[in-house]
Write a structure and sequence with these properties.
By secondary structure, the protein is α+β, with helices and mostly antiparallel strands. Helix content is 21%, strand content 29%. It contains four helices and 15 strands. A seven-stranded mixed beta sheet has the order 5-13-6-7-10-9-12.
């Protein structure tokens, strides 16, 4: 069932479910719904934003009556509800990132091994064997939320979040994983760091990744550990 409800006085929120843990098919259906709305070019609509289970449609209330936008969304939602295609496959680009898992970068390697019952090398092997999908972007510019995390690597967040982690830190929080695009507080379990620059306002587009892209991490030994927990990478793997 698709639900449409107001989001303040300048938007409509189109929801495809209320499950606590969205699945890949639902996330992809939201992207498909975004495509339908964007192609429809509804009057007054300014932009659309995807979430795990919903699509936010923002409009200009001066330029259009909200009811007109709602009528258009009702028609599009009916088309989506009637579509039997399960929306499998992301269709995005594959991006490969080097991942340093040395003790300086993998701050939580000991607790991750303890919680999973796996040796550290096996944790890294299993994590890097997964092709993750960029489900949503948020929290900070350029920051991707990736999924799904294999069940054995589903890790609880820290009891006390860190005040700051370096840019490029890769962490797991529950059933999702992600990369911090800039220095930031973090409550996730850190298993490494990548030298990839995920956000640069001088680039066009500024984000390295987009919703629907796929991400593969490649363990990298091509680094030199420095004092203070920093790491110097000689090479970034990304294509």
């Amino acid at each position: 069932m698709i639900e449409i409800r107001p989001a303040g006085d300048t938007g409509w929120l189109v929801s495809l479910g209320r499950a606590a843990r969205p699945d890949a098919v639902t996330v992809r259906r939201v992207r498909r719904l975004k495509g339908r709305v964007d192609r429809a070019a509804l009057p007054g609509v300014i932009e659309t934003h995807v979430g795990y289970r919903s699509l936010l449609v923002s409009y200009d209330p001066v330029a259009v009556n909200p009811g007109i936008v709602r009528d258009g969304l009702d028609r599009i939602a009916a088309e989506e509800a009637a579509d039997a295609d399960p929306a499998q496959g992301s269709g995005g680009r594959v991006k490969r990132f080097a991942l340093c898992t040395c003790p300086a970068c993998a701050t939580d390697r000991d607790s991750i091994s303890r919680l999973t019952g796996l040796g550290w090398d096996e944790v890294v092997r299993r994590y890097c064997a997964v092709t993750f999908e960029v489900w949503v972007m948020g929290f900070q510019p350029g920051c991707p939320f990736l999924g799904p995390v294999p069940g054995e690597l589903n890790l609880p967040r820290l009891d006390a979040p860190r005040v700051r982690v370096p840019a490029g830190s890769v962490g797991i929080g529950g059933w999702q994983t992600g990369i911090y695009a800039s220095p930031s507080p973090s409550g996730w379990r850190l298993l490494g760091r990548t030298p990839a620059v995920l956000f640069d306002p001088r680039r066009n587009p500024p984000n390295r990744l987009a919703v629907g892209d796929r991400v593969v991490f490649e363990p990298s030994a091509d680094h030199v550990g420095l004092h203070g927990g920093a790491t110097l990478f000689r090479k970034e793997v990304s294509r």
